[in-house]
Amino acid sequence: MKILAVDTSAAAVSAALVNDGRLLGDFYLNIKTTHSQTLMPLVSALLSTTGTDIKDIDVFAVNAGPGSFTGVRIGTASVKGMSMPENKPCAQVSTLEAMAYGLPYSDGVVCAVMDARCSQVYNALFRLDGGKVERITEDRALSVQELASELEYYDDTVYLVGDGAELCVKTFADNLPSVVLVPENIRFQNAYGTALAAEKKAKEDKLCSSDALMPVYLRLPQAERELKARLEKQAQKE
User: For 217-234, how does the pLDDT look when each residue is reduced to its tens digit (9 = 90+)?
Assistant: First the structure.
């Protein structure tokens, strides 16, 4: 089973091609360029250098959120466009879960955190045991302090991954000695982890059609939140 996976959920962009669990190619860029400009050339180069025809792809996978609102939309729209002509199935992968698959040979708890601004993070916890990834919590948005209070109950090593990891280290690592900041080269989400998570979804018959593939947001975009706040404030005055 050949899986083409992409990630555009944050600043970096990546694409990976996996065949029956074997990584054939993995392209990653972390430059200040819009994903709408870099993703498809990256995918095209990946397919070309691996000698793969897009018609030979069995599953198209994407980190569908949480993450950058614009980035997530670019990723899901691109996968919809690639999968639709041949009516190929899609894997809608949690960005946070994809991070956990980036540490397959560690044992302990993965704390995946993405900076959601305003002292909040998008977060989910996963347990790693012998190469297996088990979800502990659902994806959620919570404050850094709330997360710190929750991690106090874990005796296992807690691996911090994601672009919110440094924020968490600065906030509560001194009080939680079991928390470990993962090295930068494996700290951030990568399409390879997306492909591994998608492979599990395929085995569990949890794939979806291109029509059903949708971005996943844990909270409203900032513009909508600000509009909602203004409307509520105006209603209070009236």
Answer: 986 554 444 444 555 556
